[in-house]
């Protein structure tokens, strides 16, 4: 290690000496602080090891040292990064490409804290509107009443209260109380009666003449006065009278205005939020929280969905007409009566029974669902079924057939009790706002008009809301809505949301560590993201980004290229410098691709779509923002769906193509199918596979070697060794999923979970087995590899795929499984690496390897991939394209949702959506070969393609 005197200033640099984490080759590195630094290199070259496993991990470890003794007691158990020296660290924050939560309560609004500010805004300046008259509901105060009376220029006033009683005994008792309190004047029959002039029976007789039903109304006067707006004493007297009237009238008072030339006018006031006979809740922030029992919808408990009748099951094919059996339960002989009733009402109500259901007007659909005349409607039918189901089994079976998790019928998906939706700001309730796209919500709050008092109260809150919405807009997420579930976000979207949240917090002097923030971003949106990175840096932070994007590297202050390749032949710093320097470097593989010395070649020959080509055709697609488009997908080809973020790509694939094809090939399923008219050509394929970026398993036990089914062969090989046979070990003894050979303390996971009360749970290495997963007697069994070395089962888990391929050369069954992991560019991952630690792109490529390994002969499958280039260098993308071609050569079809221009240029056919996001997107902008897309002036994607 160099002498400390030669080290640069730790105030200006992050200084790393002797880093040996994972595959790092004892590297030394000085990273300038307060700069925007990009780390690049092939997958598995050591980028993540240096940025996340060394810099971030040590930064976090040191942060925990500053916490309480409760946290520090676990520190000595936490493994320090294998590095000789790190200086110049600051508090570190990792913004990774994982959605981070499967919690169905978490939304874009809650995760960015915008929803918390919205709750505060509505609780402080929201106005209640009556659901009956749609008029504002205000609480009357002494000041507001005086102001109104002065505006009316009233002269003579009578302030009185009204009390209601049901019996003569109560009336007599109350009049005595009034005398005792000094209230002697009553208004009876529009005249003033003095309690001193009449006895109880006479008063009762007068009240009885004006009695309404069984109720006696006693109007007692609190004060009478002549109001002079210039006389402070007169106004003060009115003030005292109103306050006393509120007290005596239990919050309700009436002021009668007497004018000489007009009939008396009564104005009613109350100190409650009341209108149209409804008493409303006082708005407060917790009323708008679906995570609080006070504000959450009572039916769905704030989840927005309940087990209810699913109209998609009742009317599964909306292209059918009612006459052709669109309403499935009415097609059975037992319930055909309801179809006859509907037919009987169709002529007077002008319902076309022969028109496709999705072509019916809103009025026609309302009648079909809610009923009219003799016809009870679909909803009425199921209410009848629910009543019968309480004591008839076959009705319960019928009910369950059409039930699924659907939008809550009580709150309409708002998650809130109905009282919260009565509160509005500028004509919008909180549910209206969270359903807006980010850019629409931003425009709404920027142009909102409030009263002077409301501005004073809300200015700081609005500032925070606008700031956070603006950050979301700038990171390219303008097409999202605030009520979008967090778990439905892609890795790139989740990371950019976390990035915008970090910007909102305005921290200074920190280290931000990001993992491929450009995932899911169209080339046209990159500039926005780069601007955000620079603003984080300009605030006074150090921004370290693991990235492969060319535009990001061009704008970086410094680039660090790791390599030369993956795993054991990686882990070295190949280059450190600027973009202009890397493109001149002969040592950097990344530089060679950036300078075009190395390229991913454009295919010499593409599969051209002809009249005889097999295609899947979908017409009339209107789901979400898709504008009634028709799409043709050529089969046995490599097809790319492109377009800016939010243009409708995911909707097309996940809501239309995948579920629609699946329903035809596999029958009814739980995946919701979006709105479209017709699909054809599905008979040309045998199966459909959606290869997404979800983790390969739900627990930390899942790993690549078990997913690819190579672990069975490895366990079998260990069980056939001489020592295993001698000790009576079977294949099951080498499993970490069942008791026997696994460590009893950690149950084969290699670590134990420590629950922390104030921060994320910590997973520490198991002290009994030292993280090796197995008992000592199992670890004694070793197998001899092709290189002459002997390894136990734990050592095998610690090998990379590339090392395992070398070690197991003499075991063809194991090699046959593992070679596909190497083929898809995952030679650097360890066999025992937990599936939960794999990135979305790595998990997707493990699945790709599985399909390549276990593809049935003569089985024509349509494979759908969503952003498969996640985490891939140019060098690895070339491998990925070979994998796609391998699938196609086996008779399959590949459909890819992608922004990476290197992949798009290699496709046989491109479907480009846009031109914008959200409502500005959803059109089929261009389709054809990449050459045709590039020549189409309407295509934004075409402008960036280099062929």
Question: Which strand-content bin applies to the residues?
Answer: 15-25%
Which runs of at least 5 residues are low in confidence (pLDDT < 50)?
none
E-strand count? 35
Distance from N terminus to C terminus (CA atoms, Å) equals 48 Å
Helix content: 25-40%
Summed up, the helix count is 34
The average pLDDT value, as a whole number, equals 86
Notes on the protein architecture:
Helix 16 packs across helix 17 (491-505) and helix 28 (801-807) runs antiparallel to helix 29 (812-823). This protein is an alpha+beta fold and 947 residues long. The strands form 10 sheets. The chain has a 6-stranded mixed β-sheet, sandwiched between helices. Helix content is 35%, strand content 19%. It contains 34 helices and 35 strands.
Relevant terms:
34 helices, 947 residues, 6-stranded mixed beta sheet, 6-stranded antiparallel beta sheet, 35% helix, 19% strand
Brief write-up:
By secondary structure, the chain is α+β, with helices and mostly antiparallel strands. It is 35% helix and 19% strand.
Topology diagram in text:
Layout: E1 13-19, E2 27-32, E3 36-41, H1 47-65, H2 69-72, E4 85-87, E5 92-95, H3 108-111, H4 114-125, E6 127-129, E7 136-137, H5 142-151, E8 156-165, H6 168-181, E9 185-188, E10 191-194, H7 200-209, E11 216-226, H8 232-248, E12 252-259, E13 262-270, E14 274-275, E15 278-279, E16 305-309, H9 311-314, H10 336-346, H11 362-370, H12 377-389, H13 393-401, E17 403-407, E18 423-424, H14 430-434, H15 438-446, H16 452-474, H17 491-505, E19 511-515, H18 526-538, E20 542-546, H19 550-555, E21 558-563, E22 572-577, H20 579-582, H21 589-594, E23 615-621, E24 629-634, E25 638-642, H22 649-666, E26 678-680, E27 687-691, H23 704-707, H24 711-719, H25 722-727, E28 751-754, E29 762-765, H26 776-779, E30 783-784, E31 790-791, H27 793-797, H28 801-807, H29 812-823, H30 840-854, E32 861-866, H31 874-889, E33 893-897, H32 901-904, E34 909-914, E35 923-928, H33 930-935, H34 940-944
Parallel strand pairs: 3-20, 3-21, 5-19, 19-20, 25-33, 25-34, 27-32, 32-33
Antiparallel strand pairs: 1-2, 1-4, 6-7, 6-18, 8-11, 8-12, 9-10, 9-11, 12-13, 14-15, 16-17, 21-22, 23-24, 23-26, 28-29, 30-31, 34-35
Helix pairs in contact: 4-16, 5-8, 11-12, 12-13, 15-16, 16-17, 28-29, 29-30
